[in-house]
Amino acid sequence: MNVTEAIEARRSVKHYDTNHVMPEADLAELIRLTKLAPSSFNMQNYRILVVRDPETRQQIRAVAWDQPQVTDASVLFIMCADLTAHLANPSDYWSHAPEEVQNIIGPMIRPFYEGNDRLIRDEAMRSAALAGMTLMLAAKDMGYDSCPMIGFDAAKVAELINLPENYAIGFMIPVGKQSQPGWERGDRLTDNKVVTYDKF
Amino acid sequence: MNVTEAIEARRSVKHYDTNHVMPEADLAELIRLTKLAPSSFNMQNYRILVVRDPETRQQIRAVAWDQPQVTDASVLFIMCADLTAHLANPSDYWSHAPEEVQNIIGPMIRPFYEGNDRLIRDEAMRSAALAGMTLMLAAKDMGYDSCPMIGFDAAKVAELINLPENYAIGFMIPVGKQSQPGWERGDRLTDNKVVTYDKF
After folding, report:
1. Coil, helix or strand for A154?
2. Which chain B residues are within 8 Å of A200, Cβ to Cβ?
3. Helix, strand, coil: what percent of chain A each, to 5?
4. I want to staple A79 with a disulfide (CB 3.0 to 4.6 A). Which of A86, A90, A132, B95 is the partner?
5. How far apart (Å, rounded) are the C-alpha atoms in residues A170 and A149?
6. Are A121 and B118 an interchain contact pair (Cβ–Cβ within 8 Å)?
7. pLDDT (tens digit, 9 = 90+) per residue, B24-69?
């Protein structure tokens, strides 16, 4: 499926075949492609929780407005991010640049974020979403549907999944084989409401 | 180009053909596809600034660590979001659901966000990134390269583009025809650093 077709065909699907089990090879491929999403300074601060345990899924559904896709999709991805990723050693993820660039950029990363809690949080949300969008389009290409979700009690989900204190939850993405299609695509706002040229 | 190829081939490209002018039809298609990205409650809270004016681009470059892609790419997209989108009338963007669902969900949107500044900001970053990732993969499919950027003085860019008070900047994406390829892809962190199963 080409990119245009995948973008057009992706819909938020809420009803899934509960008998479908995602093959390990498909899960590995989805994760491989998700990890190719960009992140600032290539920090790869996204953290992916793959929830398959039925009991945990049922507990999460109970704090997610009882939405069926939480338990019924083949896999529930919880897209998180590490709020302390900027403290890691840049040499772990900065080998792609010429050495002279590494020597300039590496020492810039920590001070760029340190003490700026809003920027750190923004970065968590950006990276979780860039990775999550990549995951949803890759899933569509592989014959799966998905449903990005923020309709849940984030504090209770954090407790259920033992979220580390230095992590934030971005959003959840159930992925599986649809049993019913999503709704018709909602109206798009007209371009003059969402697109502006040169300056606001 | 299929989705897997586009995800694999997308690199952050910093050097562009300064003579290339993006045809209006390509720009329109990029915007059409970007607008198919999902957003919470289908609020479509992303706002896309398309900067082509050379003087504005030069001013932005001056507060973006003098990075060449800001002026040299064919178009500079600044992915923003409206922090008050949850106050809009849901009937503008919620026509896709059955009427009984509209009647339940519509009134939920405003109270879900109101008074929760962090959630509102998170939503801005998520939507800008979901739309931006869609834009970058669509661009790759159409023969363009891109470079997601947060390395700029956001307050100064906000001033240069007359950012409305109720908008936030997510990140910038120069898009154009590369004159030099991006660096080799940086090392990926191993799965055991970014993927966890069932609970942390």
Report:
1. helix
2. 49, 161-164, 167
3. 45, 20, 35
4. A132
5. 9
6. yes
7. 999 999 999 999 999 999 999 999 999 999 999 999 999 999 999 9
Nearest to A198 among B51, B93, B185 (CB): B51
Inter-chain contact B186–A42, Cβ cutoff 8 Å?
Answer: yes
Chain A interface disruption, residue of B77, B146, B194, most A CBs within 10 A: B194
pLDDT at B106 over 90: no
Using CA atoms, how far apart are residues B121 and B67, in angstroms rounded to an integer?
27
**pLDDT per residue as tens digits for the range B122-178:** 999 999 999 999 999 999 999 999 999 999 999 999 999 999 999 999 999 999 999
A97-B182-B64 Cα angle (round to 5) = 80
Strands A178-180 and A15-16: antiparallel
CA distance B178 to B69: 10
CB contact under 8 A, B56 and A198: yes
Cross-chain Cβ contact B123/A150 below 8 Å: yes
Maximum distance among all Cα pairs of chain A, rounded to whole angstroms: 54
> Which domains does chain A possess?
3-181 (3.40.109.10)
SS3 of residue B114 by DSSP? coil
Question: How far away is chain A from the Cα of B162, in angstroms, using its nearest Cα?
Answer: 5
Cβ A189–B96 below 8 Å, yes or no? no
Neighbours of B175 (CB within 10 A): 27
**Count of residues in chain B:** 200
Structure tokens at B17: 């053909």
Q: Spell out the long-range contacts of A5-8 with Cβ–Cβ below 8 A and sequence spacing 24 or more.
A: A6/A137, A6/A140, A6/A141, A6/B3, A7/A137, A7/B33, A7/B36, A7/B37, A7/B134, A7/B137, A7/B138, A8/B33, A8/B36
Amino acid at position B27, single letter: L
Closest of B91, B57, B88, B41 to residue B172, by C-alpha? B57
